Amino acid sequence: YMLFDPEKIITLYWYLALIGTIIFILKVSLPLDAGGEVSGDFTSITDTDASFQFFTIESISAFFMSGGWMGWAAMEHLHYPVKIAVLISVISGILGMLLFTWLVTLLKKLEHTPKASLDELKDRIGKAYTHFDPKGNGKIQIEFNSRLDTIDAVNETEEYIEAFKQIKVTKIENGVVYIVKESE
Fold first, then answer.
1. Helical ranges in 30-81 per DSSP H
2. How many CB atoms within 10 Å of residue 140?
3. Contact status, residue 26 vs residue 45, Cβ threshold 8 Å
């Protein structure tokens, strides 16, 4: 009786590869929550960049998938000894994990929306979200950064502005948005 029976190791590799592949395909193809990311994933040990997550369910399943298939192929088809097959499978698993993490990092860069400057709001039309007293503060809703956003603003006039009335941004000074009531 051998401690490392090659037939048992081949079967173990096959199961690891199959289970890793199934989990990988399910996790990558099915969004499990509204954000598209799973909250149960483990972030990297260091708290460097939140967008770079090395130890996720997907990357760990990529490790088992690529390492399992390479270990199985090395023993079953290439007839390598157990030590060489284990080395090949571990290296392949790490490479699979790194490749997946690198691809996810590239995809996250594609979805990055550049932050717009408040200066781009000048002369735009929006709606008062709250009532504005004369020369008073409140909130407006206006398209900003490619979405409808609620922003703090100051009524530049002595005129009362009701909520949900059209407004126009007249100027931005020191990060403060100034508005007037837009004639409808």
1. 57-76
2. 27
3. no
Residue 100: how many CA atoms within 13 Å on its side-chain side? 24
Strand partners, 40: none
Per-residue pLDDT of the chain (184 residues; tens, 9 = 90+): 456 788 888 888 999 999 999 998 888 887 654 444 444 443 333 444 444 566 788 888 999 999 999 999 998 889 898 889 999 999 999 999 999 888 888 887 777 666 668 888 899 999 999 999 999 999 999 987 778 889 999 999 999 999 999 999 999 998 899 999 987 6
Give buried/exposed letters for 60-92 (b at 16+ CB in 10 A, else e).
bbbbbbbbbbbbbbbbbeeebebeebbebbeeb
Token couple for 153: 């603003």
Q: Is the pTM of this model over 0.70?
A: no
| Cβ–Cβ under 8 Å, residues 114 and 124 | no
